[in-house]
């Protein structure tokens, strides 16, 4: 299984890989916001955490449709599905993890830079980074379900986003509310953050199982 | 070791492709499936590999002691596509499958030995995408060698191969059978072996929709 | 296969890259030495320059910041000219030049954004504002990264060349916008003080270190660019040789 992780990471970082595309998309999405709402620094600082979270959510949905589609196109998916149930679930888990390492983790690391552009303070930026670190894996894991369902469709890309966005809304809600709670005084930071962590763990358990079931059903 | 199919029924969409299909092969034997396009050769192989569910019937792999073995772990499936990544080197592709498809039934060849076997010595360091279609197919065959699994399920294994590579493929299958393996292949290529059974699929058997929609 | 025709076309034109490799190999040591020397002198002069009566010691960031911003734009202009070469004369070296200038230009742009940010914190009280100059330079940075992603997305450099050249030329609109942003819009960033029609408006004690630093940056750019171009030429030769090797092994069908 380490071999699978290494292979997926190697493909993501080789030429033609999508590792840095997510970060670029993140950068571009967040950078257009000030053009739309004007360069008022106080306003930007106030909405910064929400913008960063929405940008990160969209960016991590970006490469999800390729998660299994690429393996299906070259025939590897048959070999991945040809395993006993537990190994298949674990395979999906590893593939989602590789996807997060290649596209989610760079988003977390790029967040401070964008926090600067959004005129966010150190606490606020730190809170967003922490919530993204916990929240983006949840998106990758639940996204695997959408990717598995859409694997047989020729134009699955948009569909994956449409299927997954509603499921990712709780992640967004608690991620943003925890980020705001860190800077607005009476609200406590930990309760929403704990719920966010719980969602992440729940998705990490549920996502691979559901995706494995969908892959079993989808093979033709 | 013995592979037995009993009363298999498979369909594509609404049409039943084959019904009441059965065969048995044991160690050192091969089964060649022939038939016109659309007769259900690929469907049958995918059912045997466990990638598709059969409508009814079952396919069992029995060990020497008579216990049922999981086909998933004891069979290699080679589909139309090569299951290799263009971006990665041949060496990386093969060693990935070697460790991913590790099985208890015996050690496979090393990656370099497998590449030597298929006559492409020196190709290991090249990205898979640089190879020609025939070379890519031969690397896909090398995957069957790097991890040992007794049952080979081959779907048009000689597609894109030239005459010389055809013979090379027949040799690989013969070696596999002589070592006590089993092979089920959908191919028109004569394997040049004695202990080959053949199974002809004739095409659409009946339309199931008549029963469902009548 | 179409591969062979591509590699043959590439090989007939290899004569030029070969001459380029020989020539650049001879120039590089001198260029690198000159770059290092001028950088040392420039840095010394920058630190010897008097402190500004308003800005204090932070004014020295300017000696790093201003040439970086110039080079960021010059590098893009070099790429635009090279892209013209790709589109009009289809010269393979032009594509190599445009592609290898990308990361260097992105680095200079990032340096100017970074140093500007460090200067802006004590002077303006913020790391970043969305005014016309800063925003247009940030857009330049995004364009550099986007073009790099475009090159990375194609595994065959010959196919990436023309789309990248077209995109580079379209993006060139941004360069005059950056240059004149401080005149067209009312911005926080100060207007041009060196390159203007009525002569520079800064004192000689600051002008000279700035010019030496600009020279040093330019030399550094050309040194790095030549080195990167040589690497890219070798990388493409390796790729061609690999394709040939793949064809020769096992009488590949």
UniProtKB/TrEMBL annotation, chain A:
- Membership in a protein family: Belongs to the CcmB/CycW/HelB family.
For this protein, the record's NCBIfam families field holds: ccmB
**Pfam families from the entry?**
CcmB
Q: What is this protein called?
A: Heme exporter protein B
Annotated source species:
Hoeflea alexandrii
Q: Where, subcellularly, is it found?
A: Cell inner membrane
Keywords from UniProt, A to Z, are: Cell inner membrane, Cell membrane, Cytochrome c-type biogenesis, Membrane, Transmembrane, Transmembrane helix, Transport
Q: Which gene codes for it?
A: ccmB
Keyword Transmembrane helix on entry: yes
- What sections of the protein cross the membrane? 12-37, 43-64, 85-109, 129-153, 160-183, 189-215
Topology with respect to the bilayer: Multi-pass membrane protein
What role does this protein play?
Answer: Required for the export of heme to the periplasm for the biogenesis of c-type cytochromes.
Which branch of life, at top level? Bacteria
Keyword Cell membrane belongs to the record: yes
UniProt xrefs under InterPro entries: Cyt_c_biogenesis_CcmB (IPR003544), Cyt_c_CcmB_bac (IPR026031)
From TrEMBL, chain B:
Record flagged with keyword Repeat: no
Which Gene3D superfamilies would you find in this protein's record? P-loop containing nucleotide triphosphate hydrolases
Species: Hoeflea alexandrii
- UniProt KW keywords: ATP-binding, Cytochrome c-type biogenesis, Membrane, Nucleotide-binding, Translocase, Transport
| Protein name, entry field | Heme ABC exporter ATP-binding protein CcmA
Gene field: ccmA
> What family classification does the UniProt entry report for this protein?
Belongs to the ABC transporter superfamily.
Annotated Gene Ontology MF terms? ATP binding
- Taxonomically, the superkingdom here is Bacteria
- Provide the organism lineage as a comma list: Bacteria, Pseudomonadati, Pseudomonadota, Alphaproteobacteria, Hyphomicrobiales
UniProt domain ABC transporter: residue ranges:
1-214
From TrEMBL, chain C:
Any one Pfam family here would be Cytochrom_C_asm
Domain Cytochrome c assembly protein residue range list? 14-189
Key words of the record: Cell inner membrane, Cell membrane, Cytochrome c-type biogenesis, Membrane, Transmembrane, Transmembrane helix, Transport
For this protein, the parts annotated as crossing the membrane are 27-48, 68-89, 101-120, 132-151, 163-182, 202-227
NCBIfam families the UniProt entry points to: ccmC
* Chain's role: Required for the export of heme to the periplasm for the biogenesis of c-type cytochromes.
Protein name per Swiss-Prot or TrEMBL:
Heme exporter protein C
Which organism does this sequence originate in? Hoeflea alexandrii
């Amino acid at each position: 299984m380490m071999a699978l992780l290494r292979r997926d990471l190697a493909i993501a970082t080789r030429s033609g890989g999508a590792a840095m595309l997510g970060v670029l998309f993140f950068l571009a999405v967040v950078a257009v916001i000030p053009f739309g709402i004007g360069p008022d620094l106080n306003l930007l600082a106030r909405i910064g955490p929400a913008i960063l979270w929405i940008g990160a959510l969209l960016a991590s949905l970006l490469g999800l449709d390729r998660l299994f589609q690429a393996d299906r196109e070259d025939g590897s998916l048959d070999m991945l599905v040809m395993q006993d149930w537990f190994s298949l679930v674990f395979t999906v888990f590893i593939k989602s993890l590789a996807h997060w390492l290649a596209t989610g983790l760079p988003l977390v690391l790029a967040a401070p830079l964008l926090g600067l552009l959004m005129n966010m303070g150190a606490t606020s930026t730190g809170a967003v980074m922490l919530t993204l670190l916990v929240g983006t894996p949840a998106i990758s894991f639940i996204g695997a379900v959408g990717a598995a369902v859409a694997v047989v469709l020729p134009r699955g890309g948009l569909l994956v986003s449409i299927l997954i966005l509603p499921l990712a809304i709780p992640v967004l809600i608690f991620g943003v509310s925890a980020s705001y709670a860190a800077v607005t005084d009476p609200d406590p930071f930990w309760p929403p953050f704990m719920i966010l962590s719980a969602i992440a763990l729940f998705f990490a358990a549920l996502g691979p199982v559901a995706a494995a079931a969908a892959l079993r059903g989808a093979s033709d | 070791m013995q592979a037995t199919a009993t009363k298999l029924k498979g369909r594509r969409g609404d049409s039943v492709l084959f019904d009441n299909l059965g065969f048995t092969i044991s160690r050192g034997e091969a089964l060649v499936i022939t038939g016109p396009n659309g007769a259900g050769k690929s469907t049958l192989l995918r059912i045997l590999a466990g990638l598709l569910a059969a409508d009814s019937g079952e396919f069992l792999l029995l060990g020497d002691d008579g216990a049922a073995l999981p086909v998933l772990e004891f069979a290699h499936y080679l589909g139309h596509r090569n299951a290799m990544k263009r971006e990665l080197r041949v060496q990386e592709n093969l060693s990935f499958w070697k460790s991913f498809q590790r099985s208890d039934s015996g050690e496979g060849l090393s990656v370099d030995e497998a590449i030597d076997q298929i006559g492409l010595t020196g190709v290991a360091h090249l990205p898979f995408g640089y190879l020609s279609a025939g070379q890519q197919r031969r690397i896909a065959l090398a995957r069957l060698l790097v991890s040992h699994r007794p049952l080979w399920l081959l779907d048009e294994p000689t597609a894109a191969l030239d005459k010389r590579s055809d013979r090379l493929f027949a040799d690989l299958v013969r070696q596999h059978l002589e070592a006590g393996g089993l092979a089920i292949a959908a191919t028109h290529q004569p394997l040049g072996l004695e202990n080959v059974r053949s199974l002809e699929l004739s095409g659409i058997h009946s339309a199931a929709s008549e029963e469902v929609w009548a | 296969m179409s591969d062979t025709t591509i590699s043959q076309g590439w090989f007939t034109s290899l004569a030029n890259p070969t001459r380029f490799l020989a020539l650049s190999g001879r120039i590089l040591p001198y260029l690198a030495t000159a770059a290092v020397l001028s950088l040392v002198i420039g840095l010394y002069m920058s630190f010897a320059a008097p402190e500004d009566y308003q800005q204090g010691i932070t004014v020295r960031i300017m000696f790093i910041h201003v040439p970086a911003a110039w080079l960021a734009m010059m590098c893009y202009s070099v790429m635009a000219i090279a892209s013209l070469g790709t589109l009009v004369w289809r010269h393979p070296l032009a594509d190599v030049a445009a592609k290898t200038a990308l990361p260097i230009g992105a680095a200079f742009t990032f340096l100017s954004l970074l140093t500007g940010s460090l200067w802006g914190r004590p002077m303006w009280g913020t790391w970043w504002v969305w005014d016309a100059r800063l925003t247009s330079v940030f857009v330049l940075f995004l364009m550099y990264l986007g073009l790099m992603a475009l090159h990375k997305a194609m595994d065959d450099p010959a196919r990436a060349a023309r789309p990248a050249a077209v995109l580079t030329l379209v993006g060139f609109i941004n360069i005059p916008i950056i240059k004149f942003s401080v005149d067209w819009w009312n911005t926080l960033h100060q207007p041009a003080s060196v390159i203007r029609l009525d002569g520079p408006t800064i004192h000689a004690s600051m002008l000279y270190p700035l010019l030496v630093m600009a020279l040093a940056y330019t030399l550094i750019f050309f040194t790095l660019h030549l080195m990167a171009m040589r690497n890219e030429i070798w990388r493409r030769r390796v790729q061609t040789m690999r394709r040939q090797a793949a064809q020769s092994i096992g009488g590949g069908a």
